[in-house]
Amino acid sequence: MADLCLTVDLEEWYHTLWFDADQVIRRHYGGRYPRGEFVEPLKEILALLGRHGARATFFVLKEIAEGFPEVIQRIYNEGHEIGSHGHAHVDLVNDVMFEEHEAEVRHALTRIVGERVRGFRAPNLRTSGEMINSLERIGYAFDSSIMPSIKIPGWYGGLAPQLPYPPSHRDPRRIDGGRPFEEVPLLVFPGIRLPAGAGWFLRNMGADYVRTAAALQLKRGRPAVLYVHPWEVAENPKIPGIPGHVFRRTGRYVLGAIEALLVDLEAKKTTISEMLDDGWA
């Protein structure tokens, strides 16, 4: 039985780069960033996973880990995997201090959960060969930042394998069989490579769209990896000036869609590390 790996990028709603967060916070929050708004919707995600006996991988942003270590500990105690989502929710590709910064994040997460974290996901799914090499030197075992879809200008995509593979030292989208580090790509439609493995598609394209892509991937014996954010489970805050697609159908629709995936898809619902350790092939 193939694996369904639901993953959660643990961040606040204003970390997305689909709008000018500083301007929104100045205009509607008096310049003070709200903290901890992810906690309540996160509890709903954890409760849903618990009801269905599903385990997931949570990629945690550094400021979330530092501000809410007890929340990270709770996630881990409930049987889920903790990974890193970076030291800041910005494009890290050109960060000359990336390796030093990321080593600090891994150390902080390891201190919270009591074991070495193995996985990383880049904010905005932007990565490079240099970043992958740094992750391996730091001690990570896998990255999950590649959407191997058709190219979407200004977003992501590009030719890459649709199943876990050892990435090249130069180009993370190519295979290099000489390393133990693995790239775990996100869900796309097999063959036609339409992207599907993100909460944006769950909300804007519909639950059936993502479920169909996952079913086709699982039918081929490949793991289906997708991600959501806690803020996508919260109700639409209806903040003026934010593009409609950002918060479209957030709230109960997303929670119901996640539950439908867990119920309808015949697969083992598990963490990325367990999927890799069990040998998905």
Structural write-up:
- β4, α6 and β5 (142-143) form a beta-alpha-beta unit.
- This protein has one domain: Alpha-Beta Barrel (TIM Barrel).
- The mean pLDDT is 94.
- Helices cover 38% and strands 10% of the residues.
- It has helices at residues 21-29, 39-51, 62-67, 69-77, 98-113, 129-138, 199-204, 207-219, 244-247, 252-264, 272-278, and strands at 3-10, 57-60, 81-84, 119-120, 142-143, 182-183, 224-228, 268-269.
- It has 281 residues and is of the alpha/beta class.
- α5 packs across α6 (129-138).
- The strands form 2 sheets. Strands 1, 2, 3, 7 and 8 form a 5-stranded parallel beta sheet that branches.
**Content-based structural category:** alpha/beta
Overall average pLDDT: 94
Q: Work out the count of structural domains.
A: 1
CATH superfamily: Glycoside hydrolase/deacetylase
Strand content: 5-15%
Q: Which CATH architecture would you pick?
A: Alpha-Beta Barrel
Could you tell me the number of beta strands?
Answer: 8
Helix content: 25-40%
Taking the sheet with the most strands, its summary is:
5 strands, parallel
Shape: globular
H and E string: EHHEHHEHEHEEHHEHHEH
CATH secondary-structure class: Alpha Beta
Tally the helices: what do you get? Answer: 11
> Alpha-carbon distance between the termini?
10 Å
What topology does this entry show?
Layout: E1 3-10, H1 21-29, H2 39-51, E2 57-60, H3 62-67, H4 69-77, E3 81-84, H5 98-113, E4 119-120, H6 129-138, E5 142-143, E6 182-183, H7 199-204, H8 207-219, E7 224-228, H9 244-247, H10 252-264, E8 268-269, H11 272-278
